[in-house]
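Dear colleague,

Thank you for sharing your sequence with our group. We've completed the structure prediction you requested, and as agreed, I am returning the results in plain text so they can be pasted directly into your records. Please verify that the sequence below matches your submission; if there's any discrepancy, let me know and we will rerun it promptly.
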Amino acid sequence: MRDLFLTLFIFGMLPGAFFRPYIGVYLWAWVAYMNPHRLTWSYAYNFRFNYFIAIATILGIIVFWKNTVKIPRTMTVYLLFGFLGWSTFTSFYSINYAWHDWQQLVKIYMMVTATFLVIDSKKAIITLVTIITLSIGYFGIKGGVFTITTGGQFQVLGPARSFFSDNNMFALAELMVVPMFLFLRSQMKNFWLRLLFIGLALLAALSVIGSYSRGGLVGLIVVTLYFWLRTPGKIRIALLLALVMPMAYNLMSERWQDRMISMVKKVEIPKNITDFFKDRSVFDPENDPFPESEEESVSIVVDSSVAGRVQAWTLAWRVAIDRPFVGGGFRTFHLNVFRKYVPHAQRRAAHSIYFQVLGEHGFVGFGIWLFMHLSAFRTRNWIMKRTRRIPELNWAHELARFIGISMMGYYASGTFLGLAYFDLPLHYISVLVILQVIVKRELDKFEKPKPKKEGRFPYKPIEELS
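Please find the predicted structure tokens below.
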């Protein structure tokens, strides 16, 4: 019954996606982030609904092209599409077959482009943000309730065969919508609705804890501190956190507490950190970029997963040194590459958005990607500065502020999680760019028209007098 209802609903909305492409963008966001087909049991479970949604939306944009808006010409947009161009270039020189992952990135960019073309108003942008937040937050709410009812005995995961089915990816996705629940709360006037969204944010945050993801926990701490520093009423928030955090810790099981404290084992780590990135089998001894170190290795106690992360980062660095211009291309972090660059590695994942981009696209691609995010943050700061103390644009100020907090969670957790090509950060960047366009348009309305300067002789010509 679920399969039939979902199929009828989505195909029934396709005409709306064609004649009103912004409906297609909303529908695509809902299916992409919530994965409702993964909540069914029959034929709809593996059905690719987003292909039909994308086709209807793109055809609608082409047919009704005159009704679309221009893609903003800003540095953020140039860097955004520049990264796509560079990843295309590196795919031609990839170590492994990279075109499957490249196609996934292109699909994301297609709908980001559609967002640029059809979302151009306050109502549309808040609707899109609401759909994204509730789509991902749905599983966080469920996960938070599950964590409370089970006392944190079991791990919270995302829907099976979705982009965030893994506990680390689930934690990152939920972490990025916790601040957006608070943004939606700021837009509510009803007291009970405001209280409801605070509760939803707390449940989503609790699901991050219940995921058993240490990277997610690090990101949650960073987001909490950043939010506390950037929000008035610090004493009140500090008292609330002092009350909630011990309760959350005591709620969780001993297994969770042990995992956060970390199971440890001894690993040989050299004193000279550059020795992490040495590999005699890769470089010619005569041209070895790292000099010999005569210092002895020492044993220190670290978590076993930390060792796996260091091995993945070592791989990324060695590939970038070996191929600095193009990197290894998509799918660099695979078995055959590990065997060549880090033969004794235990794990086969990137474990960091930064090292993932560096290893797969070289120093040039990493630079484009890094400056893209820095430019997006500059756009966010511009919006906040221009909309401060303007009541009509308070919504834009709050949206930019909370997107910035969400992105801080992505940057913090992403230090330990390999999700560099996640849709949501790119969608948030596009929202910031569109928001800047809307703010500029609204500010132009507030500016008073400048009076025309009179000439040196402000007298009417003789012809007009006659």
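Summary note from our side: Strands lie at 264-270, 297-303.

Kind regards,
the structure core
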